[in-house]
Design a protein that fits this description.
The complex is a heterodimer of chains A (325) and B (335). Chain A is built from 13 helices and 12 strands. With 325 residues, chain A is of the alpha/beta class. Chain B has 335 residues and is mainly alpha-helical. Chain B has a single domain, classed as ABC transporter involved in vitamin B12 uptake, BtuC. In chain B, helix 3 runs parallel beside helix 8 and helix 4 packs antiparallel against helix 7. Classes of the chains: A alpha/beta (325), B mainly alpha (335). The interface between A and B is medium-sized, with 33 and 33 residues.
Chain lengths: 325, 335
């Protein structure tokens, strides 16, 4: 009896020791348990490889999002990837292909992973979906960096990366206290859709100090990350700073927005245009792309919000057309 | 009231209601434009006035598209039901919508198109290819002309094929899915006058051809053999009919996306007033189609705060229940 009790206590102690070595990562579909250092990481998030590479971890497979780059990573991640040759996953999530890769960790935070796919993938390896309490594409880059750091056992490096980039934001914010009282919105002109307050691009502008326009949050769209603005109600998006993100034939597309020239942002030169690569950096909003994005976008925003309608924002002609490369 | 009196009254009344809805469409929306401003926008245009621009460049083209598109779908539906002698026939059965959809997703996927204006040409090309394939498979080249049953089967088979191909592309391209999911709802928002003008030539051929087909189809009610005995060239009539339907639907789907139910529902609503006469049915369906589409476009502006619900969605919400009521109230839907 006594022996049994001692054995039980020891067993519990051993179990606790084992558990303390494995890390528990909570996410929207449950809790993933990862122990040791994962060696074969499959990255299903469209931007997830950037987050891994920022912590100096190379995935064995990564997801192609868009853009024609040799290894499916954008320029800011090329150095971090080095000569590694991860498998590039195109198209939808192919469970069999992932199983063949024999991963020991699957990261799918910004992938739109469904619960059904999670149920299958989590049998192959510990799988991490979007953070708990968030929708498929609403997590912040800090949340995602933190989760990745925990999953690969590099919590300290992750915190370091986060605070480095937050410092960069803070430096820009404190240089521009006037932005705190201004509103800003990022819009895809081809569909006249605004990136929502919890979208990565919406968050980026708020991280710079700008406020999200309440009139746009009031639009009851099916997808709060990507809010369609009806043409005749474009006034809701007439904020202190309007960011037009890249789209093919941007000048034609902008010209086809009939009410654009009635916007005060247009009349007072408070619009900026983010070109293909800068838009890509905002779209990724990763620890690797954010420093690049901040370097490039800050002078544009400064020119747009300097309070002088005569200032021509870099990248624009005097009559409000985008200068194409 | 006698049937003849009813049918002679229904056309002017329908036309008046449609015109009223069209005028209301200019007045109401997310931006309230006062009556005098509507007048000013048309006759004393101020290019910096947001109300004037809204009226001229957004609402006018939008209501024009709804009127023409709705009319085209209603007319095409009447022809389809008369030609196939099937009360549940719908212009979509000819695979035109499916062809337009594959054209749209391929152009988004390969050419990176995302603006609505850029989708018109690929949709029209896709619809055209689908139409030719359906005609060939449906036996248009056959000596006896296209057979309605074969046409519908060919259309259904091709629609299924196009749907599969469309989804294959959508699975490969997230951008295509993002654009497609709005296109597929169908609606008249954001259509510019340039776009309406671009497809107008197709309508200019389609409408007269359709009314001609409606006249020619009448003898076919008696059956193919009886019609042949009367000296009707059945194959030619069918070819004209299918050609007209394809032109009308192809133009509409490229302009406004696939809008279901108008072609299916409208002829049923018109038939009690016009009786069996196919030309009258065609004319009535044209007017009621325009009326329904304009109403749906207008109603969609009031359903959700701050945004517009696509006309295609509103029509589906009206059309589904309406069709159930029609079928339940009248055990059989006579042609």
């Amino acid at each position: 009896m006594r022996l049994a009790a001692v054995t039980l206590v020891m067993a519990v102690a051993f179990a606790q020791a084992a558990l303390s070595q494995s890390r528990m990562i909570e996410h929207a579909y449950g809790t993933a348990q990862v122990s040791g250092t994962p060696e074969r990481i499959v990255s299903l998030s469209y931007i997830g490889h950037d987050f891994l590479l920022a912590l100096d971890v190379k995935p064995i497979a990564l997801r192609h999002w868009y853009g024609n780059f040799e290894k499916a990573v954008w320029p800011w991640a090329e150095d971090a990837l080095g000569d590694a040759e991860p498998v590039i996953l195109y198209g939808g999530i192919d469970i069999e292909q992932i199983a063949m890769l024999a991963p020991d960790l699957i990261l799918a935070q910004w992938s739109g992973l469904t619960e059904r796919e999670y149920a299958l993938l989590s049998q192959i390896a510990p799988t991490i979906a979007h953070p708990k309490g968030e929708r498929a594409y609403s997590a912040s880059w800090q949340q995602m960096t933190r989760q990745v750091g925990l999953a690969v056992g590099r919590e300290d490096e992750a915190e370091q990366v986060i605070s480095d980039i937050e410092d960069q934001f803070e430096a820009i914010r404190s240089a521009h206290p006037e932005w705190q009282s201004q509103t800003a919105i990022a819009i895809l002109p081809s569909r006249l859709s605004a990136f929502g307050a919890r979208d990565l691009r919406g968050r980026f502008l708020q991280d710079l100090g700008f406020q999200f326009p309440t009139a746009v949050s009031g639009i009851d769209d099916f997808d709060p990350n990507f809010i369609r603005i009806p043409h005749e109600a474009i006034g809701v998006a007439d904020t202190d700073l309007v960011v037009w993100v890249d789209t093919p034939d941007v000048n034609d597309v902008l010209a086809a927005i009939p009410l654009r020239h009635t916007m005060q942002a247009f009349q007072e030169g408070r619009e900026i245009y983010t070109d293909y690569e800068l838009t890509g950096a905002l779209n990724h909003s990763s620890p690797l792309s954010l420093p690049y994005a901040l370097d490039r976008i800050t002078p544009l925003i400064e020119a747009a919000t300097d309070g002088n309608p005569e200032t021509v924002v870099p990248g624009w002609t005097r009559d409000g057309k985008v200068i194409q490369p | 009231m006698t049937g003849a009196a009813r049918s002679s009254l229904v056309l002017p009344v329908g036309l008046a209601i449609t015109m009223l809805l069209a005028i209301l469409s200019l007045r109401f929306g997310l931006r309230d434009i006062a009556w005098p401003e509507i007048w000013n926008a048309l006759f004393a245009f101020d290019p910096m006035n947001a109300d004037h621009i809204t009226l001229r460049e957004l609402r006018l083209s939008r209501v024009t598209a709804a009127l023409i598109g709705g009319a085209a779908l209603g007319l095409a539906g009447a022809l389809m039901q008369a030609m196939t002698r099937n009360p549940l026939a719908d212009p979509g059965l000819l695979g035109v919508n499916g062809g337009a959809a594959i054209g749209v997703v391929i152009s988004i996927w390969i050419l990176g198109a995302s603006a609505q204006a850029a989708l018109i040409a690929p949709a029209l090309i896709g619809a055209g290819i689908a139409a030719v394939l359906v005609l060939v498979l449906g036996g248009a080249a056959h000596r006896s002309g296209p057979d309605p049953t074969r046409l519908v089967l060919a259309g259904a088979a091709l629609s299924a094929l196009f749907l599969a191909l469309t989804w294959a592309v959508l699975l490969m391209s997230r951008e295509a899915l993002d654009v497609f999911r709005f296109w597929v709802l169908g609606g008249f928002t954001g259509i510019s006058m340039t776009q309406v003008m671009a497809v107008l030539p197709v309508y200019a051929v389609g409408f007269p051809l359709a009314f001609l087909a409606a006249r020619l189809l009448s003898p076919l009610i008696l059956g193919d053999d009886a019609a042949r005995a009367l000296g009707v060239r059945v194959w030619l009539v069918r070819l004209i009919c299918v050609g007209a339907v394809v032109l009308l639907c192809g133009a509409t789907v490229s302009l406004a996306g696939p809008i279901a139910f108008v072609g299916l529902l409208v002829p049923h609503l018109v038939r009690p007033f016009t009786g069996v006469s196919i030309p009258k049915l065609a004319l009535g369906s044209t007017i009621l189609g325009a009326c329904l589409a304009t109403f749906a476009d207008l109603a969609g502006r009031f359903l959700l705060p701050g945004r517009e619900v696509e006309a295609g969605v509103v029509i589906a919400m009206i059309g589904g229940p309406a069709l159930v009521i029609l079928v339940r109230r009248r055990q059989e839907v006579p042609l």
